[in-house]
Please model this.
Amino acid sequence: MHVQVDLDLCQGHGVCESEAPAVFELGKNASVTVLQPDPPEALRTAVEAAVRFCPTSALRINEEE
Model:
């Protein structure tokens, strides 16, 4: 699993950080940083929740083959 954020869509709501704080961090300028672009499978549920609940649909999971 590979996590991507579209910074053009991101408005800094911080939902991703609240759902998966080990993977996402909201900076002081309301810009999200992906701390773990390839998080372990154990974090899949949290990352999927962050993607699902992002108010601007700025997050995406790409499955690597």
